[in-house]
Amino acid sequence: MRDYIDETVRRVSFIMGLLKESGARGIVFGNSGGKDSALVGILCKLACENTVGIIMPCGSKRNYGEDMSDALLIAEQYGIETRTVDLGGAYDTIKQAVGEAAGLTEAAAANIAPRLRMTALYAIAASEGALVAGTGNRSERHMGYFTKWGDGAFDFNPIADLTVTEIYEFLEHMGTPGRIIGKPPSAGLIEGQTDESDMGVSYKSIDAYLLQGECPPEDAAVIERYHRASEHKRKPPAAFECKT
Description:
This protein is of the alpha/beta class.
């Protein structure tokens, strides 16, 4: 297990250094009510008093219920300023407009929401001289379980090297409410959706693969297939360079 006292000190120092280097006056992040955004919010608040968590319900009933309640719980416990930007109307408008030009698949429609959220975060950050904090973890990144130009976009990410197992350990160290830690990980884009049911493999197996280099063979096959298929998400966009 990591030394989470030392981890806290080093990550807070990392964030403070970025703020000083950039001249930014604050931090904004998407407060989804989940484990990752909770830890990011806690670390950012320790590093910068002007940390704002933006709750952005969009296209899912749970966004207005359980997710919002959990986001407010985290904000209250750790003294994080909260604002709400309801993106439901914008989501419906874009989905309808694009649907008139192309046959939207369920996955394509669902990915509109995280891209809208990132648009909102950057608009707020640009208006207030702030940086956008990312909330993705190592396990998700390895699997490519994030939306390109959505939750995969950020100015910095203080938890990018942590697996889901380590996120839970870190949150327990920070005294985070059990209902946040015990909540099944979900992107919250579709009713009843969970990360593990989407991927067909548990985070326990993913983390064992990443941390110990071993897991059941059938799970390893799923993990390796997801990693190969999502390689484009972890690379910068291809750009032609004229070589003279």
